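can u pls check wat happens w/ calcium ion
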Amino acid sequence: MPRTTTAYTTLDLDGLGKQVGFVAIPHSPHDDGWGHVRIPMAVIANGSGPTVILQGGNHGDEYEGPIALGELIRELDPGEIEGRLIVLPAFNAPAVEAGRRVSPVDGLNLNRTYPGDPVGSLTQQITAYASDHLFPIADAFIDLHSGGSSLHMIPSAIVEPAPTREHLARNVAAVRAFGAPMIVVIDNLGDPRTSTATSVRANLTTVGTELGGGGTVSRDALEICRRGLRNLLAHFGVIDGSVSAPTDGDIRAIPGPKGFVFADAAGVFESFHDLGAEVRAGQDAGSVHSLTRPDLPPQILKFGADGIVYGRRQPGRVVPGNCCLVVAAPYEGELP
Ligand code: CA
């Protein structure tokens, strides 16, 4: 029995050609009794072929994906494709409008709200729409993230773990086709509330990315994203052409909690290493300086795993628990 919903769309999900409109989530704040929030969506369909959901703006301060998806909506002619694309360039639209990771409406991180709640808060209603109305009609899901305001990341394509070898093989093949400089398996410490964990539970072939970050637009990462989207559409057989420069190198993974370096004190974080540096467990990672207690020496943070520096905090200020550095280690699981 499907869950009830008040969300609706201006588009015909079964229609052919190119439609650009929105999903409406009714929203009734002080100044708008019967209004709604609009989640932009395009449906581009022709012939027969797989249904691929392309999403950006899951977090509102990660820009390469939304830019590249807007270009794709404008450029793609339905006659070029075989299949159906459901394109959501600004999925958490209120967060995208605000340029913030989380929604200014309910304060929620969309990527920690799946499977959503169709009668919950606004963000929960957005993710419920994806869970109940989009994932069930799709074959593949691409979730385009960047590092956001708080992290710089090495541009990379992300493998979401899957429960069967067959499904993991599909995810890895698609991630390789994207063609990012690096591939990382990220399980978010097993968190089931992310979009990619949810799409895997729905049996979709799933690809994630981390493209640049720092709350700005990286032209290099944007170019990787543009090429990666075309590569994925070719990989899935939605557009003609071959995959250019797939990633055939090693696969890395964030090795659980020891892959993260967290601040243990309040102050300003100084990283001792740049992105891409080779590091060892036990090595000094950086220091936290107290600017208001010059009598105190800085606190030294250590790496907990061998690998390369994959992510680095952007803001200088830290409090205990803030993520300062992320290490990507060689992937030790069995790959199909
Ligand atoms: Ca993100």
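Residues 59, 62, 145, 148 surround calcium ion (CB under 6 Å).
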